[in-house]
Amino acid sequence: VWAYMWWTLESCFLASVAMFEIIFSLPVTMSLWTVFLQQKILFFQMLTIYMILGIGADDAFILYDAWLQARFADEGVDDHWVSRFAWAYRRSFRAMAVTTSTTCGSFLIGAISPLPQVRDFCIFAAVVVFVDWLFCITLFASAVAVHHRYLRSDKQKGICCGPGCCCGACRVIGGRCCQMHWPAVDAPPGKRAMERFSEGPLFDFLKRFRIELILAWLLIISVMLFIAIGGLRTAG
Question: What is the DSSP string of 159-176?
Fold first, then answer.
Protein backbone atom coordinates (compact mmCIF):
# COMPACT_ATOMS: atom_id res chain seq x y z
CA VAL A 1 0.00 0.00 0.00
CA TRP A 2 2.81 2.39 0.86
CA ALA A 3 4.60 1.69 -2.42
CA TYR A 4 1.39 2.26 -4.40
CA MET A 5 0.75 5.53 -2.59
CA TRP A 6 4.33 6.58 -3.37
CA TRP A 7 3.72 5.83 -7.02
CA THR A 8 0.37 7.62 -7.12
CA LEU A 9 1.20 10.65 -4.97
CA GLU A 10 4.67 10.91 -6.53
CA SER A 11 6.16 11.76 -3.15
CA CYS A 12 7.85 9.53 -0.59
CA PHE A 13 7.08 12.16 2.05
CA LEU A 14 3.33 12.23 1.37
CA ALA A 15 3.15 8.44 1.11
CA SER A 16 4.97 8.06 4.43
CA VAL A 17 2.74 10.60 6.19
CA ALA A 18 -0.37 8.91 4.81
CA MET A 19 0.86 5.50 5.95
CA PHE A 20 1.70 6.90 9.39
CA GLU A 21 -1.77 8.33 9.91
CA ILE A 22 -3.33 5.06 8.75
CA ILE A 23 -1.26 2.87 11.05
CA PHE A 24 -1.37 5.26 14.00
CA SER A 25 -5.17 5.41 13.95
CA LEU A 26 -5.15 1.87 15.33
CA PRO A 27 -3.18 2.49 18.58
CA VAL A 28 -5.14 5.69 19.19
CA THR A 29 -8.39 3.73 18.96
CA MET A 30 -6.93 1.02 21.19
CA SER A 31 -6.14 3.64 23.80
CA LEU A 32 -9.68 5.02 23.65
CA TRP A 33 -11.08 1.50 23.81
CA THR A 34 -9.08 0.41 26.85
CA VAL A 35 -8.72 3.65 28.83
CA PHE A 36 -12.10 5.31 28.39
CA LEU A 37 -14.37 2.38 27.57
CA GLN A 38 -12.55 -0.08 29.85
CA GLN A 39 -12.81 -2.83 27.24
CA LYS A 40 -10.38 -5.57 26.28
CA ILE A 41 -8.75 -5.82 22.86
CA LEU A 42 -9.74 -8.95 20.98
CA PHE A 43 -7.98 -10.64 18.09
CA PHE A 44 -10.78 -9.86 15.63
CA GLN A 45 -10.39 -6.15 16.29
CA MET A 46 -6.81 -6.27 15.02
CA LEU A 47 -8.14 -7.27 11.61
CA THR A 48 -9.35 -3.71 11.15
CA ILE A 49 -5.82 -2.84 10.00
CA TYR A 50 -6.57 -4.41 6.62
CA MET A 51 -9.77 -2.39 6.34
CA ILE A 52 -8.27 0.94 7.34
CA LEU A 53 -5.37 0.53 4.91
CA GLY A 54 -7.80 0.82 2.02
CA ILE A 55 -10.04 3.48 3.57
CA GLY A 56 -7.12 5.64 4.73
CA ALA A 57 -5.36 5.47 1.40
CA ASP A 58 -8.61 6.40 -0.33
CA ASP A 59 -9.00 9.51 1.86
CA ALA A 60 -5.43 10.55 1.08
CA PHE A 61 -6.07 10.15 -2.64
CA ILE A 62 -9.27 12.22 -2.41
CA LEU A 63 -7.50 15.11 -0.70
CA TYR A 64 -4.49 15.08 -3.00
CA ASP A 65 -6.67 14.69 -6.09
CA ALA A 66 -8.64 17.76 -5.04
CA TRP A 67 -5.32 19.57 -4.64
CA LEU A 68 -4.40 18.69 -8.22
CA GLN A 69 -7.84 19.58 -9.56
CA ALA A 70 -7.60 23.01 -7.93
CA ARG A 71 -5.32 24.02 -10.81
CA PHE A 72 -8.36 23.80 -13.11
CA ALA A 73 -10.72 25.60 -10.73
CA ASP A 74 -12.14 29.08 -11.09
CA GLU A 75 -9.92 31.94 -12.09
CA GLY A 76 -7.77 33.17 -9.24
CA VAL A 77 -7.74 29.92 -7.27
CA ASP A 78 -4.30 28.89 -8.54
CA ASP A 79 -2.78 32.34 -8.07
CA HIS A 80 -1.52 31.48 -4.58
CA TRP A 81 -1.02 28.21 -2.77
CA VAL A 82 -3.26 29.34 0.11
CA SER A 83 -6.31 29.90 -2.10
CA ARG A 84 -5.57 26.67 -3.95
CA PHE A 85 -5.30 24.72 -0.70
CA ALA A 86 -8.51 26.28 0.67
CA TRP A 87 -10.41 25.29 -2.48
CA ALA A 88 -9.05 21.74 -2.37
CA TYR A 89 -9.69 21.38 1.36
CA ARG A 90 -13.31 22.48 1.13
CA ARG A 91 -13.93 20.21 -1.83
CA SER A 92 -12.31 17.12 -0.31
CA PHE A 93 -13.63 17.73 3.21
CA ARG A 94 -17.22 17.26 2.13
CA ALA A 95 -16.43 14.14 0.12
CA MET A 96 -14.43 12.52 2.93
CA ALA A 97 -17.04 13.50 5.54
CA VAL A 98 -19.80 11.78 3.55
CA THR A 99 -17.82 8.58 2.93
CA THR A 100 -16.61 8.45 6.54
CA SER A 101 -20.10 8.98 7.98
CA THR A 102 -21.62 6.26 5.81
CA THR A 103 -18.82 3.82 6.67
CA CYS A 104 -19.07 4.54 10.39
CA GLY A 105 -22.85 4.26 10.21
CA SER A 106 -22.70 0.88 8.53
CA PHE A 107 -20.37 -0.42 11.22
CA LEU A 108 -22.42 1.05 14.05
CA ILE A 109 -25.42 -0.94 12.87
CA GLY A 110 -23.49 -3.99 14.08
CA ALA A 111 -23.56 -2.55 17.60
CA ILE A 112 -27.04 -4.03 18.02
CA SER A 113 -25.75 -7.53 17.34
CA PRO A 114 -26.40 -10.00 20.17
CA LEU A 115 -22.94 -11.51 19.61
CA PRO A 116 -20.35 -9.69 21.77
CA GLN A 117 -17.49 -10.33 19.33
CA VAL A 118 -19.41 -8.89 16.39
CA ARG A 119 -20.65 -5.95 18.43
CA ASP A 120 -17.17 -5.05 19.72
CA PHE A 121 -15.59 -5.42 16.28
CA CYS A 122 -18.14 -3.13 14.62
CA ILE A 123 -17.85 -0.41 17.27
CA PHE A 124 -14.04 -0.61 17.23
CA ALA A 125 -13.94 -0.43 13.43
CA ALA A 126 -16.21 2.63 13.41
CA VAL A 127 -13.91 4.43 15.83
CA VAL A 128 -10.85 3.50 13.77
CA VAL A 129 -12.43 4.97 10.63
CA PHE A 130 -13.37 8.17 12.45
CA VAL A 131 -9.88 8.60 13.97
CA ASP A 132 -8.25 8.03 10.58
CA TRP A 133 -10.51 10.71 9.09
CA LEU A 134 -9.44 13.15 11.78
CA PHE A 135 -5.80 12.44 11.00
CA CYS A 136 -6.40 12.88 7.27
CA ILE A 137 -8.08 16.29 7.53
CA THR A 138 -5.39 17.55 9.91
CA LEU A 139 -2.06 15.72 9.60
CA PHE A 140 -2.14 14.74 5.94
CA ALA A 141 -3.71 18.04 4.88
CA SER A 142 -0.85 19.86 6.60
CA ALA A 143 1.63 17.53 4.91
CA VAL A 144 0.27 18.50 1.49
CA ALA A 145 0.92 22.17 2.24
CA VAL A 146 4.39 21.45 3.64
CA HIS A 147 5.26 19.33 0.62
CA HIS A 148 4.18 22.05 -1.78
CA ARG A 149 6.11 24.81 -0.02
CA TYR A 150 9.32 23.07 1.02
CA LEU A 151 9.67 19.61 -0.55
CA ARG A 152 8.27 19.96 -4.05
CA SER A 153 10.66 18.92 -6.79
CA ASP A 154 11.06 21.33 -9.70
CA LYS A 155 12.72 18.71 -11.86
CA GLN A 156 10.94 17.13 -14.79
CA LYS A 157 9.10 13.87 -14.31
CA GLY A 158 10.92 10.79 -15.48
CA ILE A 159 14.42 11.75 -14.32
CA CYS A 160 16.36 10.88 -11.20
CA CYS A 161 15.26 12.87 -8.14
CA GLY A 162 12.25 14.14 -10.07
CA PRO A 163 8.64 13.88 -8.87
CA GLY A 164 8.23 10.47 -7.32
CA CYS A 165 11.98 10.04 -6.83
CA CYS A 166 12.59 6.30 -7.16
CA CYS A 167 9.43 5.75 -9.18
CA GLY A 168 11.09 8.09 -11.65
CA ALA A 169 13.20 5.11 -12.74
CA CYS A 170 10.01 3.38 -13.90
CA ARG A 171 9.10 6.53 -15.81
CA VAL A 172 12.46 6.45 -17.58
CA ILE A 173 11.95 2.80 -18.56
CA GLY A 174 8.42 3.57 -19.75
CA GLY A 175 9.66 6.55 -21.73
CA ARG A 176 12.33 4.56 -23.51
CA CYS A 177 10.38 1.35 -24.10
CA CYS A 178 6.84 2.68 -24.63
CA GLN A 179 7.67 6.15 -25.98
CA MET A 180 5.88 7.83 -23.08
CA HIS A 181 6.33 11.57 -22.65
CA TRP A 182 5.66 13.81 -19.69
CA PRO A 183 5.16 17.56 -19.81
CA ALA A 184 7.89 19.91 -18.72
CA VAL A 185 7.80 21.50 -15.30
CA ASP A 186 6.90 24.95 -16.66
CA ALA A 187 4.23 23.58 -19.02
CA PRO A 188 0.61 24.62 -18.38
CA PRO A 189 -1.42 22.12 -16.36
CA GLY A 190 -3.16 19.42 -18.30
CA LYS A 191 -5.75 16.83 -17.37
CA ARG A 192 -4.51 13.38 -16.49
CA ALA A 193 -5.28 10.24 -18.48
CA MET A 194 -7.91 9.02 -16.02
CA GLU A 195 -9.69 12.37 -16.08
CA ARG A 196 -9.67 12.47 -19.88
CA PHE A 197 -11.00 8.91 -20.03
CA SER A 198 -13.73 9.55 -17.44
CA GLU A 199 -15.09 12.70 -19.04
CA GLY A 200 -14.64 11.41 -22.57
CA PRO A 201 -15.15 7.77 -23.65
CA LEU A 202 -16.56 6.57 -20.31
CA PHE A 203 -19.10 9.37 -20.04
CA ASP A 204 -20.15 8.95 -23.68
CA PHE A 205 -20.63 5.21 -23.17
CA LEU A 206 -22.71 5.64 -20.01
CA LYS A 207 -24.81 8.37 -21.60
CA ARG A 208 -25.45 6.38 -24.76
CA PHE A 209 -26.38 3.08 -23.08
CA ARG A 210 -27.85 4.44 -19.83
CA ILE A 211 -31.21 2.69 -20.27
CA GLU A 212 -29.64 -0.62 -21.23
CA LEU A 213 -27.23 -0.48 -18.30
CA ILE A 214 -30.00 0.26 -15.81
CA LEU A 215 -32.07 -2.65 -17.12
CA ALA A 216 -29.06 -4.96 -17.06
CA TRP A 217 -28.28 -4.13 -13.44
CA LEU A 218 -31.92 -4.53 -12.43
CA LEU A 219 -31.92 -7.95 -14.08
CA ILE A 220 -28.71 -8.97 -12.30
CA ILE A 221 -30.02 -7.78 -8.93
CA SER A 222 -33.31 -9.60 -9.46
CA VAL A 223 -31.56 -12.87 -10.31
CA MET A 224 -29.23 -12.58 -7.31
CA LEU A 225 -32.18 -11.77 -5.03
CA PHE A 226 -34.12 -14.76 -6.37
CA ILE A 227 -31.13 -17.05 -5.75
CA ALA A 228 -30.65 -15.67 -2.23
CA ILE A 229 -34.32 -16.14 -1.34
CA GLY A 230 -34.30 -19.64 -2.79
CA GLY A 231 -31.33 -20.53 -0.63
CA LEU A 232 -33.04 -19.61 2.62
CA ARG A 233 -33.99 -22.44 4.91
CA THR A 234 -36.61 -22.14 7.59
CA ALA A 235 -35.84 -23.48 11.05
CA GLY A 236 -37.37 -26.85 11.88
Answer: STTSTTTTHHHHHHHHHH
